[in-house]
Amino acid sequence: MTPRHLTALALAAVVLAGCGSDPEPKSQASPSTATTRAPLPLLVRGTFTLELPNFGWSSQTNICAGTGGHDDIAGGTKVVVTDNTGTIVGVGALDQGQPQTDPEDRTRADSCLFQFTVKDVPSGKGFYSIEVSNRGKVQSKESDLAKDFVQLGLT
To answer: 18 φ, ψ to 5°?
Structure first.
């Protein structure tokens, strides 16, 4: 072999030595070590409204609640959230009812407004149903629950 051939052979050996079986540089993280994060839970917030004549209220306590056939609606009434399979994924309760009085006549209330919050509802289910007491389920998209107040009510 000539010195020229030896130089070419040595250069080829150096290039081939640099080509290992591991195509990834050691400084890059492999996909198997990447961590995946669980989706954040939803905070479902909303209101439930009773209209006249389905509630009574006290101007002394400024608290209202359902009456007659609606006496199951009051502060502490259960709010249940189910996922798209019907599985219960969260439970909350109505806050105390707040009478919505006429600004011109504070002795007259047209409706009774209850707020509610259901915490730690697992996300990623697509659609959810919300039910206050046994008054029927109202379906909502996950995207709506994540950004808006849910407004429910009985007239």
So the answer is: -75, -15
